[in-house]
Design a protein that fits this description.
Layout: H1 2-18, H2 35-48, E1 58-60, H3 61-70, E2 75-82, E3 97-105, E4 108-111, E5 120-123, E6 126-132, E7 136-139, E8 142-143, E9 149-152, E10 158-166, H4 169-179, E11 186-193, E12 204-207, E13 211-213, E14 230-233, E15 240-243, H5 254-259
Antiparallel strand pairs: 1-15, 2-3, 4-7, 5-6, 6-7, 8-10, 9-10, 10-11, 11-12, 12-13, 14-15
Length: 275
């Protein structure tokens, strides 16, 4: 069954690549196929090709290195800021320094294709890169424009670290053919905001689908991506990282995630909402 799903996805991508038009992929009506069954097709692919590295509650420095080397994530980001406060209690913009500012999009993962397809192809002017490891093949995801940007709020009371991405062209085409929606971006916006006492107690994290996590643990009701947030554990000499936030699970959220995609082609990227 999974092979049939993968074959359908590959067929739609190849068909669009051969089509003379450069416009949006055509919606495939598939008579008698319900939306629920279309969602099943996407969920099957997600279930079949998970990340190989399962994140523990405590992450050692060596495990972090392994995680990054295997690219076993949908998104990876870590950041740390240093800044000074002015006499008004707001951030002095010229003093902002990113001690660490890293972000990377995890690749689209699917069945291992073997060594014969480990290069790249160009489809309608877009290069599709194939890579991978011994168990999975990768296709590069599409990064969010301005990935890793550091933004200072208009009132100089907050800093934003914003990054994200979405599946590559080979995933976006069949998604549009199934749902008439471009594949949505997954994104994270880490906002470091000053509280009334001048400390960064107003920190919050916005993520797809447009919901926010705050230090109180509250969150929206329809999140899709599983997000784990770690802080460096200085009690271990700074050699390990401890999970500090709830795990935001993806179970039951696929429909909301798909419907958040744009009906236009190509779908617009979400913008930071620092405030």
């Amino acid at each position: 069954m999974q092979k049939n799903v993968l074959a359908w996805r590959a067929f739609q991508f190849i068909k669009w690549g051969w089509d003379g038009s450069t416009g949006a992929p055509q919606f495939v009506r598939l008579p008698a196929v319900s939306t629920k069954e279309r969602l099943w097709m996407v969920q099957t692919l997600l279930d079949e090709y998970p990340d190989n590295f399962e994140l523990p509650d405590s992450l050692s420095a060596s495990e972090l290195t392994t995680l990054r080397a295997q690219r076993s994530y949908r998104m990876f980001g870590r950041t740390q800021f240093r800044y000074l406060l002015g006499s008004s209690g707001s951030i002095e913009q010229s003093s902002v320094v990113a001690i660490r500012n890293e972000c990377d999009n995890g690749p689209t993962k699917f069945a291992y294709l073997g060594d014969f397809l480990q290069g790249s192809i160009t489809v309608k002017g877009v290069e599709v890169d194939f890579s991978g490891n011994l168990s999975q093949s990768f296709i590069a995801s599409e990064p969010l424009p301005g990935n890793g940007a550091i933004t200072i709020g208009a009132d100089s009371r907050a800093l934003s670290f914003y990054f994200g991405g979405r599946v590559g062209l080979e995933g976006r085409v069949p998604n549009y053919a199934l749902f008439s929606r471009d594949a949505p971006f997954i994104f994270t916006e880490m906002i470091f905001a000053l509280g009334a006492d001048g400390r960064d107690t107003g920190s919050r994290i916005r993520f797809s689908v447009n919901k926010t996590w705050s230090p109180s643990g509250t969150t929206g009701t329809a999140h899709f991506n599983e997000i784990r947030i770690y802080s460096r554990d200085y009690g271990t000499g700074g050699t390990s990282f401890t999970r500090v936030a709830p795990v935001f699970e993806i179970a039951g959220q696929l429909d909301a995630f798909i419907q958040s995609g744009d009906r236009t082609w190509p779908g617009a990227a979400p913008l930071p909402e620092i405030r």
